Structures are given as structure tokens and as C-alpha cells.
Amino acid sequence: MDxxxxxxxxxxxxxxxxxxxxxxxxxxxxxxxxxxAKLEKVQPPFPRITYAEAIDILQKNGxxxxxxxxxxxGDEETVISSQFDRPVIVHRYPMSLKAFYFKRAxxxxxxxxxxxxxxxxGYGEIIGGGQREDDYQTLVRSIExxxxxxxxxxxxxxxxxxxxxxxxxxxxxxxxTVAWICGLQHVRETIPFxxxxxxxxx
Length: 202
Fold this sequence. Notes:
This protein is α+β, with helices and mostly antiparallel strands. It has one domain: Bira Bifunctional Protein, Domain 2 (BirA Bifunctional Protein, domain 2), CATH 3.30.930. Helices cover about 40% and strands about 15% of the residues. A five-stranded mixed sheet has the order 1-2-5-6-7. Strands 3-4 form a two-stranded antiparallel sheet. The protein is globular, with a radius of gyration of 19 Å. The protein starts with a helix and ends in a 20-residue tail after the last helix.
């Protein structure tokens, strides 16, 4: 699977989760006073914008200092996602912001084949992922470039040493996703045992 397939899978997966929640848990969402009309708009395809387009959105919406090379925090993600009525996929961040194992774009080696899914209504990133480097020698050079200990990644290199294929994936932040779907004020409301000032364990 390549980056395009990864983005398609992410939007289909998220749309399915929201759809099933609306279908099976509408009464519970009413108890939480969640505006389900906003969730009903969560249908594919999701808008897809490049990192460069996201920087442009920031510059035009109260963040004129935003520039290529900046990473996005909660404030920036809120501004970007507020331009859309459903989750938005931001892809092709600068490679300098991403881990060594991301595959580089063939048309611009400075860009990573990665993507983040930002939830609307100020909930920020709920999915992060992308395409992984599948070439052994390229991966070795990337580890060396980042001055990482080669011995710590021998097991990872073994996955490429004997041949690999293009592949991609993503991770979903369960607590953030639940907070967004339920319209909760803070992610700690979705965690069974949140770390608080007066509790470190369990």
C-alpha cells in the first residue's frame, strides 16, 4: 500500500467508526449533548491538503509568522481544521520533521510520504501515519544521517535486508477520537485512569 491507499484506508476507517457510533449510540450522544449533525458530515472523501497548503491556511488566518519547517501544535491544528466541515488530511510534511523510517516523495526528496488526520471542532490530530521506507540501503543511510546506533535497529533492518515491498500504515489516538466523537472538553475525560496532580497511579 502506498500513501494514497493509506489515506483512503484512514478516511474509510474513521467514517465507519463514526457511522457505527451514530447508528448504535445515538442516545448516549444525546445524554452527552453532542451535536450529531456535525458527525453526520463525516463522510468520505475527506479534504486532502499538502503541508505547504496548510502553512498557507495558517498565514491567511491569524498566523502570518507560520513558515515551511514549522511543526504544528494544537493551536495550528485548530486553525487548519476549522476551515473544513469534516476531518482533513494533511500530507507530505518536510522530511526534517519526520522520523528516519518514512519514505521520501519521489518528486521531492525533501518531503515525507506521511499524513495526519485532523478532526474538526478543535480536536486536532487523531490519526498519524504514512508510507515506510522499504529500501534497505536507503534506510541504512537514513539511520547514519540521524546518527542513530545501528545496532539498535538491526532487527528493523532485517525486515528489509531480505526484500520488502511498498507498505504504509497509521495509528489512531483512541482517547482523542473518543473525545471528538463525544464532544468532550478534555481528553482526560476519555481515559479510565488519567494522570492528575493528585494521582500518579494506577
